[in-house]
Amino acid sequence: MKKIVAFAFALTVSAVSSLSFAQDVKGDANAGEKKIAMCIGCHGIIGYQASFPEVYKVPKISGQGEKYITTVLNAYKKGERKHPTMRGIADSLTDQDIADISSYYANHGKVDGAVLPEKASEPKGNVAALLTKGACTSCHGENLAKPIDPTYPKIAGQHSDYLFVALKSYKVEGNATWGRSNGVMGGVAKQFSNAELKELANYVASQQGDLKTVPQSKFR
C-alpha cells in the first residue's frame, strides 16, 4: 500500500512540475511567426467557420492573453479539452512551440495606446441577472477584457456563436470527441439553460475588447 501511495504521489508531483515547466517556458513571438502554418488556415481568415460539433465561427485569437493560449493548447494535449483537430495540432507541438505561438498571437495585431472601457456596458433585461448569477466579471474583469488571472481568457468582443458553443461544451459529459473539463466553468455553465447561455454569449460579444482576426495568407 505504501508503495502505491508513494507512486501516486510521484505521479502527481511529476504532473504538476510538467505543467509548471510548460507555463514557465519563455515564448519568442518572432520564432512563433514561423510556427503558425497550422493555425492560419482557420484563425487567419475573417469569418471562417468550423463545422464540428456544429457550425460556428472559430475564435478570434490575435490579442488573446499569452498564458491563456498556452493553457488552452496544453489542455488539448492532455485531453481536458476534446476536439479532434485541435488535439492533433496540440499534440504535435513542443512546450517551446506552444510558448512561441502563444507569444506571437498575444502580440499579433496589438495597437499601442489602445484604451478599453473600464467596465462593460450596462446589460439590459435578463442579462444583468445572468451575469450576476454566473459571476462573470469576477474572473474575466469588469470590462470582460482584463481577466484577474493571465491563464483566464479575455472574452469581450469574441464571436457570439463561438462563445455559445464553448459555454455549452462545459456541460458535456462522457463524449469522447467533444467537451471541456473545467470544474469552475462546468459549475457555472450547468446553472443555465442553453437559451440563457446564448443571451450571455450575445452580450459578451457586443463588448469592446482586444480580440481580433487578422487576415493571413496560407502561403509563406
Structure write-up:
This protein has about 220 residues and is mainly α. It has a single domain, classed as Cytochrome c-like domain (Cytochrome Bc1 Complex, Chain D, domain 2). The chain is built from eleven helices and four strands. It has helices spanning about 1-25, 30, 35-45, 65-80, 85-90, 95-105, 125-135, 135-140, 160-170, 185-190, 195-205, and strands at about 50, 55, 80, 180. The strands form two sheets. It has a two-stranded antiparallel sheet with strand order 1-2. A hairpin with a 5-residue loop joins strand 1 and strand 2 (about 55). Helix 4 (about 65-80) crosses helix 5 (about 85-90) and helix 4 (about 65-80) runs antiparallel to helix 6 (about 95-105). The longest helix is centred in the N-terminal third of the chain and has 23 residues, at about 1-25. It is globular, with a radius of gyration of 18 Å. The relative contact order is 0.17.
